């Protein structure tokens, strides 16, 4: 096992346990789409693992 493969494995494990604490706001959710997302009101992207997550509140940040 090389050092590079150990680092790659460690990164994969850390992403698996990612708490999505460093989020970038994408957009708020309105109308019927709220039901689609199970009642959540805003879409965010995790800066650490890149996963899209939703939050149950509207963001005060808007892109308009
Ligand atoms: Zn994450």
The gist of it:
Helices cover 28% and strands 23% of the residues. It contains two helices and three strands, in the order αβαββ.
Helices and strands in order:
Elements lengths: L2 H14 L6 E6 L4 H4 L5 E5 L5 E4 L9
Bound molecules: zinc ion.
Coarse morphology: elongated
Strand/helix succession: HEHEE
The averaged pLDDT comes out at 90
What integer value in Å does the Rg equal? Answer: 16 Å
* Quaternary state of the chains: single chain
**Helix fraction?**
25-40%
Low-confidence stretches: none
- Based on secondary structure, the structural category is alpha+beta
Number of domains: 1
Descriptive overview:
The chain is of the alpha+beta class and 64 residues long. The protein has one domain. 28% of the residues lie in helices and 23% in strands. The protein has a 3-stranded antiparallel β-sheet, with no helix packed on it. The protein is elongated, with a radius of gyration of 16 Å. The mean pLDDT is 90. Zinc ion (ZN) binds next to loops.
Features:
64 residues, 2 helices, 23% strand, binds zinc ion
């Amino acid at each position: 096992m090389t050092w590079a493969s150990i680092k790659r494995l460690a990164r994969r494990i850390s992403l698996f346990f990612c708490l999505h604490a460093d989020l970038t706001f994408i957009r708020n959710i309105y109308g019927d789409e709220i039901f689609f997302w199970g009642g959540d009101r805003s879409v965010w992207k995790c800066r650490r693992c890149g996963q899209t997550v939703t939050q149950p509140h509207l963001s005060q940040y808007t892109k308009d």
